[in-house]
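User: Can you help me understand a structure? I only have the sequence.
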Amino acid sequence: MDLSNLSVDPENQTAVLTVLHPTTHAPLTDEDGNEVTITIHGPDSKAQTELQRKFRNKALKDGVKRKNMSISSEQLEARALDMDVAATADWQNIGLDGKELECTPENVKMVYTKLPWIREQVEEFMADRANFMGK
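Assistant: Let's start by predicting it. Here is the structure, written out as C-alpha cells:
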C-alpha cells in the first residue's frame, strides 16, 4: 500500500468543526440560521508542531534554570489552553453578550474559558486525526 495517500499537508492542515449545543447536540446557528463553526489546525500542522516545540523548549529551559522539572497543575492547564487557542485558525458566527466576536487569541481564550464545553468540543475534534485526513 502506498502510504503517501494517507499523508497530510502540514502547511494547510485545517478542518472545520461545527459547534454543537452542549445538551441537545444539535448544530448551533446564529439568528440567520448560519452554523457556528471553528476552523482548527490539525495535530500534525506546522502551526501545532511549532507551538509544541516552543512549549517543550521553554519547559526544558526553565527546568535547567531551576535544576528541577516540576510543573504545577495550573501551569499544565494554562499550556493546554494556550495550545487550544493557537490551534484555532478562525471561527464563524460566534457571539457573546449580544456581540459578534472577532477571532483573536484574546477572544478565543475568553470564550474557551467562559464556555468550557466549546473548548471540550475543540479538543475532541483535534484528537481525531480523521478530521484532518481529507476524504
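Now, to help you interpret it: Residues 46-66 form the longest helix (21 residues). The longest strand covers residues 14-18. Let me know which part you'd like to focus on.
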